[in-house]
Specification:
Among the domains are: 2-40; 46-226, no CATH class. Helix 1 packs antiparallel against helix 3 (20-40). A six-stranded mixed sheet has the order 1-2-3-4-6-5, with helices on both faces. The protein is α/β, with parallel strands linked by helices. It has helices spanning 2-11, 14-17, 20-40, 46-52, 60-71, 121-135, 186-192, 219-229, 241-247, 255-344, 349-356, 360-364, and strands at residues 77-81, 96-103, 108-114, 149-155, 166-170, 203-208. The N and C termini lie far apart (119 Å). The protein is elongated and about 135 Å long. 54% of the residues lie in helices and 10% in strands.
Length: 366
Amino acid sequence: MVCMFVETFVFSSPFFCSNRIFYIFVVQLQTQKRITMKKEEQLVRFDWAMKRLLRNKANFVVLEGFLSTLLKENIHITKLLESESNKEDENDKFNRVDLLAQNDKDELFIIEIQNSRELDYFHRILYGTSKTITEYIHEGEQYGVIRKVYSINIIYFGIGIGMDYVYHGKTVFRGIHHNDILQLTARQQAQFRGKEAGDIFPEYYILRVDDFDQLATTPLDEWISFLKTGTISADATAQGLPEARECLRIMNLTDAERRAYYHHMDAVRYQKSVIQTGWIEGHDDGYKEGREEGLEQGHVKGLKEGLEQGLEQGRAEGLERGRAEGLAEGERKAKIEIALQLKEQGLSVEAIVTCTGLSIEEIQML
């Protein structure tokens, strides 16, 4: 397509006609350069980078940029910590990647990336935070040494119901009578680095990456866009992203790292395919079973309701018919009584017929 455009331009310009071959060669070089630059901009996924690249202290600036942008304050990481929850597990490393960092205020940051769906994921967030708190307080220490914990969860599946793609949760002690927020005393504020009582408790961030479907207009949006697409726009200026563009390039990886990365991506894609297939098959099987069960239950219910309705209708019709027959029989008996009295008084049969409406035969039989 490029060559066709160049040839058309060349033939329409006398100046370029004599240099037609040269300019085609130049355009081809420029096209190849753009393709090469595009390949150089391919970046590794953030979950793999957290396991392999961002643990290097030289690359802390990327994590610091991400956390600073999310929390809207300057975060300086001093070291990464190890716990039972973030040790790499062969059976779990494609589902979940997590990292535990400590800043210069001794605060702890759990950064977790979750690829596969978990119904009880909220509970696992709570458990992970609680476990981290207990891991970093020794037996016999005062409660005042408990560290502030931030749980940052980057989610690649639907979780909960909501319109936003970034959610922040924290504990707030609010008065039920005056609606005021419970504050720390001056001495507590000096010791625990907070103003409100809730500032001591863990805070949670949930980034629903797949729900982001708009242009990046804020630094946080730029980070979310990178987490979703794996690319960083040339115009992105959010803290940490320019450094990420440099240190996360696939072409900067060693051959062994590149092979490991591609193997990781194949595993992630395969797992997503398996999960999606299971969901589709489960949905189809569930629909079929539900439809059959629904038809069967509907048939049984229909018979039951039909029987009940029939009994009720029959009962009503029987009562109505019985009432009518009873009234008719009562009227007949009354006519016979009147006819007997008239006959005893000596009235003629014709007169009795006129008074009672009985037939001559019925009166003669009395």
